[in-house]
Amino acid sequence: MRTDAAQLQKPAGGTESFNEAAECLRILAHPVRLRMVQMLLHGRYSVGQLAEDAGIPDNVASEHLRLMQRCGFFTSEKQGRRVFYQIAEPHLQDLMNCVESRFLS
To answer: Is the CB of residue 40 less than 8 Å from the CB of residue 12?
Structure first.
């Protein structure tokens, strides 16, 4: 049986969707941000805790977190003077599983 391009079903998605995906993947593609995702997949952490783990100042950690929150990866909650982050995007677990199995095994 002959298959031509007219019979093939194209996968979903368009340029605009892939532009958004590429931007969010670009934001994730940083060692400190990947570590923050890894930690937050295991619990809720404050900016200070994440900064200490990464060995960076709190204000730098806040900027990393803000970028990832803009992509919808995290939510934040202020308690007194501390801001706590947690995962909002469940698909991050799948991405981290891929990274960990490829690079941390």
So the answer is: no
